[in-house]
Amino acid sequence: MITVRRGATLSSAQSDTLTLECHFAFADYQDPAHQHDGRLRVLNQGTLRPSEVYHLGPEAAVDVVTWVRAGSLTAQIDAFAPEEIQADGLHLISTGSGCQKLAWQAGPEGASFLQFWFLPDTDEGMPRQESRLSFPQGEDGGFRILASGFPEDDPEESEVVTDGAPVALSAGARLLHAVIPAGEGAAYSTSVNRDLYLLVVSGMVNVADAVLQAGDAAAVSDVRDLTVMAQEQAVVLLTDVAST
Per its UniProt entry, which superkingdom is the organism in (predicted)? Predict the structure, then answer.
């Protein structure tokens, strides 16, 4: 089953000093019809002016993944060393037993970002931070894994560790990215009892009989094989999480 969520139907939430566009209930936006998608708890879109800071905390038992769409961000989490992330880069804070202060500061050009919150398999363990400045783009326009909690995606499980390896989630989940040329497609296969959530960052795509434009999303359940066809060059993000 595929359920389309149009970008125009998203609601706003006020979090700290920032107004976010939210796919699911968050902060002062409450919506019984859109609480989560499986174990994907949050998908928020935000824009920061130059040097502006977005604060959260305290938070525990959640993996917060921030993907920078444009500009740059510096993540400052408790006593961890600051991490600067450029466009197409990724930052993960796995809050584990708890983080008190989480902040992301925009660089001199500002920043546009997407933030995903994944519910982990366990709330135990010390907080940990991981980041990637960028990820190499595949030549075929297919999906590449940005973050994963599956052992088979862990570069330590293979003989060769390559640059741009996925960051390690605390749950059996994935975050994937694809740049799909016009007229071409990207395919992804999952297993049973999984929920997929596809977000069109830019461009226009077809998913089954649905046409999605920039800002639109599709919640996909009871589907093992997903194909995304681009009507025009498109950038998409895809999550694969356990159903609840």
Answer: Bacteria
Which two tokens mark 135? Answer: 């990820």
DSSP 26-70: BTTB--TT-S-BTTEEEEEEEEE-TT-EEEE--B-S-EEEEEEEE
Q: How far apart are CA 24 and CA 21, in angstroms?
A: 9
Q: What is the SS3 assignment for 148?
A: strand
Domain boundaries, the chain: 2-242
pLDDT (tens digit, 9 = 90+) per residue, 60-77? Answer: 999 999 999 999 999 999
Do residues 153 and 175 make contact, with C-beta atoms less than 8 angstroms apart? Answer: no
Beta strands 63-77 and 90-94: pairing type? Answer: antiparallel
> What kind of architecture, by CATH, is found in domain 2-242?
Sandwich (2.60)
Q: What is the spatial distance between Cα 24 and Cα 107, in angstroms, rounded to a whole number?
A: 27
